[in-house]
Each structure stands twice: as structure tokens, then as C-alpha cells.
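Anyone able to model this chain together with thiamine diphosphate?
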Amino acid sequence: MKTNRLTTGQAIVRFLKNQYVEHDGVEDPFFAGCLGIFGHGIVAGVGEGLMENPDFRFYMTRNEQASVHIATAYAKMKNRLGAFACISSIGPGATNMITGAACATINRLPVLLLPGDIFATRNVAPVLQQLESPFSQDISVNDCFKPVSKYWDRINRPEQLITSLPEAMRVLTSPSDTGAVTLALPQDVQAEAFAYPEDLFRRRIWRITRPRPDSGILKTAADLIMASKKPVIIAGGGVIYSQATEILTRLVERTGIPVAETFAGKGSLPYNHPSNLGAVGATGTPGANEFTSGADLIIGIGTRYSDFTTASKTAFQNPVVKFININVSEFDSYKQSALPVIADARVCLEELYDLLSDFRVAEDYIQRAAKANRKWDELVDEFYRVSGSLPVLQAEVVGAVNEFAGPGDVVLCAAGSLPGDLHKLWRTTDPKGFHLEYGYSTMGYECAAGIGAKIACPDREIYVMVGDGNYLMMNSEIVTAIQEKIKVTIILLNNNGFGSIGALSQSIGSQRFGTKYRYRDEKTGLLTGDTLPVDFAQNARSLGAYVIEATDIKSLKNALYEAKKQAITTVITIETDFCKGVPGYAWWEVAVAEVAEIDSVKKAYQSYVESKKKQRYLL
Ligand SMILES: Cc1ncc(C[n+]2csc(CCOP(=O)(O)OP(=O)(O)O)c2C)c(N)n1
Ligand SMILES: [Mg+2]
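re: yes, here you go
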């Protein structure tokens, strides 16, 4: 057997360079490189391996959590056909990646995490940053990655890589199992040499297949659809990841079944398709809510049915409603006691298309959907209409950016009040034009993720829309964007606090307590003083961004025009109204105090009890 004597760190890099994916006959390298921050736990091992392999590009980032967000956004834009490895030192560098790992796993997006770990030899323990356990010496902070990873391993001997790396690849490239994969790397083991078999480093092609549905189950599904009068499709992220949007359009045009879209599924149909009911669930449109409420059959395609999608299980009010779930993941396919159609969305819809050749819902049902689509679009016009009030309304900012962005451009967002507004309002024409991380809704995702999206799609303009709270949580990757000459446009909406949680707080009777960025008031002892003097423009400028300060919609439009001409990351700041938001048309369950001294809470509890009456078990 031919062998190659390499350190564990060198072997990892060499292996990663040789992993390819094949999908629909197209072959590409799987890894785009490695992101991260060095420390004593990684610098001599994987760090040295990276230095020896400059063709495996290393990107230095500012925060390990941000590395994972960059990687996640990249994988999302690549429809999971590409990924990054993220390295960290031991201790805080490693645990910084845990939030990112959870975000990737929840969103079913592949990221490979390589945190450094404590010495396997143990003699020098406790090493700097080691969490000691009196219970076991076989514990480090990296055990915290277990619940947020789809595959987890610790490489205690160099040769363990030989069996671990292929498992990591199996999970990363599995459409049903993918998410964060963690290989914890003890710092001494990383630098140890081993005679690895040459075959470990051969070019390996991971075929991403399109599993076909069971023919019996699919026939039952087709019969259920043909027997239904008011079917509704809920299009989730799986429609987009499996590139099923074209066949979905054809199926919808053949059958007349209307479509409602989740956060990850928005863009499955163009916004102006007459069968597109728009956003579904808690942040859904009135039309989508009306249709899901009356539906006798829900066909979920590639959705994990989060509480936002089901409006906390109040979205489906027809007592005879049934579910068919087309999903590549068995786990998701069984949700809501559905008929589980375990399959790739695209091939499954192709087969359904043939089986449904004689099926069409009633003409007035089709017309009602088309009317709901038009009516909602007229309402969007109203939300987008410039009111002239100052500070401007968030919906007007969304409108200005939406109208300026080109058809192939991308809006990117994750947390705050923007996701709900974008879900409802944003007119999406391209399946990759709407990038919302709303599985984990991670504050801090946006500025970092913009970089990953741009690396994946250099020809698209990336419009990162971010609230002041999110921006303050993690803006440091602007430095990374400048370092890499990566241009994204960040629109920073400053409403001086947490508008979203403020509104939520109000709705549960808590009067926006603790949600505004204010000085502490000496007299009351509360955070009710003057607004804090944060200068966002100066902050962004200090990190190297080109900055434009807008005050009203006219100056925002000019700023967008100017930003488009820039070659470097550009931040547009604008102050927005804290309170005036877009209304919601469905319920989302957030528990309210059952007993309280305060009247507003008591009132909110009554309304909570009332709303909960609509909640169903879908058995
Ligand atoms: C890491 C993290 N912490 C807390 C939350 C809860 N949370 C969701 S949105 C939000 C406020 C976001 O503020 P901002 O970006 O200013 O947006 P706005 O609410 O004002 O629209 C908070 C605290 C979260 N999603 N993520
Ligand atoms: Mg805010």
C-alpha cells in the first residue's frame, strides 16, 4: 500500500481539496476553502497544513461565529452543493462556533467545523482555556457541539481520520441529513504524523442523488389530490434546494393548485404568478391564511413546518384537512400525520405532473387565488407608498430597496422585524433572490452572511437588510469584506432598539420593557432615559466601509444608486420609526403570564387564551 507521511492537519487539508460533488451530471469541488481564526489550539496543526496548501484558500475572519454564518450563507446560495470548512482554536474560539452550528443545522445547511481541542496526551492539562471536569478527563467544551451537529467526532489518533473524514462527507452531502459536522481536533494530534494510505487523498466524487418516491405512496398521494376540492401547496426550502421551481410552476398551471411560501421557500413561484398566495403562516398574507385555513388538503413540499409556517398550529381550520408531505427527509415527511412521500422534490413533482394530467381544481377556486394575489399586491403598493413622515417607515425602506434591486439580486436578512416584513412584502422574481435565515433567526447573521452569499454568487448584488440591534451584535465582518474586496450593500435600519421584540412585548402586556436603546434614568432606575448616541455611520466607516447616510426615501434612493457604483462594501444608514410596523394577519404563540399584577398583562392573557382556542392537534 502506498502511503504518505503527513500530519493530521496536513492530511485534513489534502483530503478536503479532493472532495467533489456531482449533481445532475455537473461536477464541482465541494469546498470553497476554509474560514477562521488561529490560536494555540489550531495554528501548528491545521494552520500549518493550510499554509502548505495555498490553493485551498484561507479566509481570516473576525469572529468564529461569523465564520460559520459566512459558510452557511454560502451553502444556502449554492443549494447545498458547496461548503466551507471553519477552523477555530480551543476554548472560546470553539464555543463561539456553537451558535453558528445550531443555525446551520436547523436550516439544514452543510458546514464543516474543525475546532481545536485539548491535548490527547493530557500530561500538561489543564491547558490554557481548558474546562476541567472532576467527573471525566474525556470532556472538553467541544462536547457542547454534539446536540447542534449532525455528525460529531473527536480525532484522538491521526489514523482515526481515515474512517472519520468519509463519514463527515457522507453527512455534509446528504440532502436529508446535512447540517453542521464537527471534527474536534486535539492540538497535539493535529501536529502528529502518520503514514496515511494514498487512497485517502484520491479525487472522490460524492453523487448527490434525487431519490424517487415509492410508486404506491405516490399513487395514493395523487388519489388524495384528485379527491380534494381545496388543496393548497406549502412550498418550503426543499423546493428551491432541489431546483424544483420550474416543475412546480408547470404543475400549478396544470392543476390550478395555489401555493403559499415559507421563509426558505419564498421565490418558489414569482410573486406575480396568479397562483402565488405569498407568505404563509404567522407572517403570512391574508390570502394565504384564508386558503390554508379552508384547505381540505395541504401538500407540503420541502418544509419542516416551523411554528411560523403553521401559525402555531392555527393555520389549518378545516376539520377534515389532510396532509401530504413531499420531503427528502423521512423525519419531516411524517409531520402533521401526513402521507409521507419521501423523495427529492423535483423528481417527485415530475412524476406527480404525469399522474395529475386529468386533475384541475374548480375554476372559481383558481380565480379566488388570482384575486388574492392581485389584492395583496395592491396592498404592497400601499405599504411601499412614501408617506413623507420622518423618521421613515420600515415598509417604505423595504419598498425602496425592492424597487431598486434587479431581478437577479438578493435580499438577505435573519432577525428582528425585517424578516416578517420581507416575507410578506418583498416581490421575489428569482428563486435565489430571497435569502432569509429564519430557522434560528440568529441576530448577527446578516453582515457576515452577506460575504458568503457574495462568494457564492459574485454576479448578483447582495442587499443585506439589518436592524440596529443585529448590526451591533456582529458588524465586525465588514473588515473581512474589505480585506477580501467583497462588495455587499448593507442597509442599516436604525429604530434605536428592538422594534420586533418591543411590539411582541407590547402584545403580551409587557409594555416594551427593556427593548429600547436608552440611557439608564437616574430617577426611575430604568432604561427610560434619552436615546443612546450611537453613530452607526462612523462605526461602519471606521471598519473600512464606504458609508452613505440617508434620512428620507429620496436620499435612500440616491444612496442605493450611489452604492451600486461602489466596488467595496457599502453601508447605508437610515433612521426608521420604532413603532409603526406592518400588521400581522395570523397568530404566533408566545406564552403570556397566567397571573400578574399589571393590567396590560392580565388583558393580554385573556386574548392569549382566546387565540389558543384555534390551536389544533393535527393527528
Ligand atoms: C442572538 C439573538 N438574541 C436575541 C434574539 C431575540 N431577538 C429577535 S429580534 C431582536 C431584536 C432585533 O433588533 P433589531 O436588529 O434592531 O431589529 P428590530 O427588532 O428593531 O426590527 C431580538 C433581541 C435573537 N433572535 N437572536
Ligand atoms: Mg432596531
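The chain is about 35% helix and 20% strand.
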